[in-house]
Amino acid sequence: MKPVRKKRLQTVLLILATSALGSFFIIRALDSNLDFFYTPSEIFLEEIPENKRIKIGGMVLENSVIREKTKISFIVSDFQGSINVEFDGIVPDLFKEGSGVVVLGYLKDKTIIAEEVLAKHDENYMPPSIDIEK
Amino acid sequence: MFQVNRAYPYIFYLSLITYLLSIFWGLFLTPEDFVQGNSYRIIYLHVPASFISQSLYLAMAIASAVYLIWKVKLSVYLVRSIAPIGAVTTFIALISGSIWGIPTWGTWWAWDARIVSTLILFIMYLGLISLHDSFNNNEKADKFLSILVLVGSVNIPIIKMSVEWWSTLHQPASITLSEKPAIDLVMLYPLFGSIIGFTGLITCLVILSSKLQIIKREKNKSWVKDYV
Predict the structure, then answer these.
(1) CA B212 to chain centre
(2) Is residue B193 within 8 Å of B21, Cβ to Cβ?
(3) Nearest residue of B to residue A123 by CA position?
(4) Given an 8 Å threshold on Cβ–Cβ distance, is A127 in contact with B32?
(5) Which region, left, alpha or beta, applies to residue A79 given φ > 0 means left and ψ of -120 to 50 means alpha?
(6) pLDDT, tens digit, 9 for 90 and up, residues B92-129
(7) Chain B touched by A119 (CB under 8 Å)
(8) N or C of chain A: less Cβ packing under 10 Å?
(9) How far apart (Å, rounded) are the C-alpha atoms in residues A107 and A84?
(10) Are strands A111-119 and A66-68 parallel, antiparallel or unpaired?
(11) Cβ–Cβ of B40/A125 closer than 8 Å?
(12) Do B187 and A127 touch (CB under 8 A)?
């Protein structure tokens, strides 16, 4: 490689390294400041103010869903801890006991008052017949 | 250029047939998903579009490095001609993901790491186009374009790894190099077909777009005058 090109190659690598390092620090900063995502076992480890909107992710515990008119309450669990959720509204079709869920809302008296309930889909795709065989 | 012109119709018709057959196979001949029902079938558009939008950026990054190091003009023409195609495929990926999100997640948009990093990719494509077109001096434009493409290329591994690094609403990859696919084979074959067909069709677009770019940039050369 000619010296000129070698120098340009070094510049290219320097650009890549600088931007990688820059975004690494930005992401680290965002991670500790902006991500309000908690798992049910983490939520009581920290003091969370009532007016802070948080995200909870986990599984809907089997036999925990109670429906009353438009209101629904259920327990979100990560198999280490669990928390009650109350929600007034329509849950997505994929919302099911035993499947993943993401809840956005406020913590009040050890219960999440949910504003939004989203169903999380996992990476598994299969036809119904195979599900029965398993 | 001559050889590309000769290969072009073969690539085009082969990929068109492959894509149409895979779509037909995926939409009508595969069973429903056990949880999502019929809505999962959007993967035959969403997955190829997302795959292509990231691959195109990677191609642009390589072409930019080649331009910056060896000053091959053709490779920066390629960068400029890929950018709008990348913007379109990223847009398709975002829209098809939103349409799938409504029945599956219960929302069409979430501020989720995978979705936001893909949105950044879309904005970057648009930004690269407008940056290049805002210069009067072509050489300067080419230089800034390729530098910015390289800077933005860190976003590609971020998109790829976002579902692993953060707890996202978007599910992790179903197809990985290291593990058995988490998607059943009857659905996987048409998915592979659709990825191959879509890639071929986009390749044809890239060929057409770069031909246009070459003619535009070399318009004062005598061979272009003979060609047009």
Answers:
(1) 19
(2) yes
(3) B174
(4) yes
(5) left
(6) 999 999 999 998 888 899 888 899 999 999 999 999 99
(7) yes
(8) C
(9) 10
(10) unpaired
(11) yes
(12) yes
| Rounded distance between C-alpha atoms, residue A14 and residue A8, angstroms | 10
**Contact status, residue B34 vs residue B194, Cβ threshold 8 Å:** no
Q: In this structure, which topology does domain A37-119 adopt according to CATH?
A: OB fold (Dihydrolipoamide Acetyltransferase, E2P) (2.40.50)
Q: Which residues pair with B183 in a beta bridge?
A: A125
DSSP one-letter string for B12-24: HHHHHHHHHHHHH
Cβ–Cβ < 8 Å for B58, B156? yes
Do B57 and B152 contact (CB within 8 A), yes or no? yes
In three-state form (DSSP H/G/I as H, E/B as E, the rest C), the secondary structure along A97-111 is: CCCEEEEEEEEECCE
Integer Cα distance of B153 and B158 in angstroms: 9
- pLDDT tens, position by position, B202-228: 999 999 999 999 999 998 888 888 887
Q: Is the ipTM of this complex over 0.90?
A: no
